[in-house]
Amino acid sequence: xxxxxxxxxxxxxxxxxxxxxxxxxxxxxxxxxxxxxxxxxxxxxxxxxxxxxxxxxxxxxxxxxxxxxxxxxxxxxxxxxxxxxxxxxxxxxxxxxxxxxxxxxxxxxxxxxxxxxxxxxxxxxxxxxxxxxxxxxxxxxxxxxxxxxxxxxxxxxxxxxxxxxxxxxxxxxxxxxxxxxxxxxxxxxxxxxxxxxxxxxxxxxxxxxxxxxxxxxxxxxxxxxxxxxxxxxxxxxxxxxxxxxxxxxxxxxxxxxxxxxxxxxxxxxxxxxxxxxxxxxxxxxxxxxxxxxxxxxxxxxxxxxxxxxxxxxxxxxxxxxxxxxxxxxxxxxxxxxxxxxxxxxxxxxxxxxxxxxxxxxxxxxxxxxxxx
Length: 372
Hints:
Largest sheet: 3 strands, antiparallel
Number of helices: 15
Strand content: under 5%
Helix content: 55-70%
Radius of gyration: 21 Å
Distance between the termini: 14 Å
Strand order of the largest sheet: 1-2-3
């Protein structure tokens, strides 16, 4: 483990931490207002649980920022295999909730291995691409191997079922392939072959979706086809966002979310609740905060001291960007509802810890470029 020197302290990014503080604060405040800040007898209030997860997440942030990312990457494949083992255990002995088997229980503690799998896949792909990286772009062999690294956990995640996470982790690979580039000749073959097999792949994908997932995609095209069923979430979400107007209705004045017309208002649809509370002004502030994080991550990827750091950084930012834009898109009705949370804002422990751990890796990469 590389010892921390004074240059790591001098590399402390105050702007980033202020931005993260505000985003996390928006999440906690939104959860508090949605749940009334109360708890059932013998149960902790959700906003307090979220604070606990944030504290644990910052512990993960510090660990990932402290240890040299190159040392962490040395164990990329064992970490990847461990996450695969967790996914296998989920399929065998996982806890089922809301029709999906996604959680592992350790006593009274539960967590989602699919969230941890993001870090395992990220590190494994970054290590794979950074070893003997070709200067002329990726060829078929390396692309197939990287696809296999992604495919194995994706199959277990789809089986849970968790379409949103399965789609999100593919952005890690796509982001890294974008950085590495493809050989020009192979790129032509890739486009032609993709065009030929896409109808068959699409049919295979459709046939393996659950009925409710198919209904969500169909409803995306026309929510009014089933306004009291699969279209209900999107319709109520649009009403909530639109009713927020320019200045919003205030912390406890959002009727759509306060009166529980809006489903999943503290998880997947927390953006809709926030937009109803704070209106266009609040949404604009939230967008600016996320854009600062995204552009900060791009800057880290661009100026990393090595390819490994660039790949890790671009994979993380690709993943966070996917979650942000898809979550906002599905609440606005311009994307299918695939169960994607708003990073750092939606209620959820495993996602919070994983996201903060990945941001710790980004901070690690930025600081290490100043240490020789």
